[in-house]
Amino acid sequence: MASLNVGNLGDYLREQRRTAQLSLRQLADAAGVSNPYLSQIERGLRKPSAEVLQQVAKALRISAETLYVRAGILDETEREELETRAVVLADPSINERQKQVLLQIYDSFRKENAAEAAAAAATAAAQTGATETPAGAPAAAAERPADAPDA
After folding, report:
1. Could you tell me which of 45, 90, 76, 66 has the C-alpha nearest to residue 56?
2. Would you say the C-alpha torsion 92, 88, 58, 27 has a positive or negative sign?
3. Tell me: the pLDDT tens digits for 96-106?
């Protein structure tokens, strides 16, 4: 059977399973999937559904979103945000309340920066729209009659 293009999902799952000190059979039982199916996922022979990835993530106590990105289910543009969240959630040196507060602060910074970027883009668009025609030519050149001689 040919290997599917599911990124490095299988290798990542194997690494997480070994870090959790679980056998393939133990993880399969904890996730509620068959041992052969989980083995095929780890070897890159099967592409699991989002539901199966969620079950496996829960059994491994890791972020399901991280698995979604590695499996190509989530868009790559969301990768950095998800990785940041996964790192915060996986940090054993802070408690759950601290993790949630940190993620709330992170979200507020992202929203603030997105609003500032949108305002800057709107300002730039307004300034650009005042000096250019839709074709991108300077407005002064566009106002010259077509039959007028060049200066």
Report:
1. 66
2. negative
3. 999 999 999 99
Give residue 149's pLDDT band: very low, low, confident or very high (50, 70, 90). Answer: low
Query: CA quadruple 14, 20, 26, 32: dihedral positive or negative?
Result: negative
Residue 33 to residue 11: CA distance in whole angstroms: 18
Enumerate the β-bridge partners of residue 123. none
Which conformational region is residue 22 in: left (phi greater than 0), alpha (psi within -120 to 50 degrees), or beta? Answer: beta
One-letter identity of residue 142: A
Spatial CA neighbour of 6 closest among 39, 42, 35:
42
Task: Find the distance separating the first CA and the last CA of the chain, reported in whole Å.
Answer: 72
Residues 13-65: pLDDT tens digits?
A: 999 999 999 999 999 999 999 999 999 999 999 999 999 999 999 999 998 88
The size of the chain, in residues, is 151
Alpha helices (H) along the chain: 9-19, 24-31, 35-42, 50-60, 64-71, 79-90, 96-131, 139-143
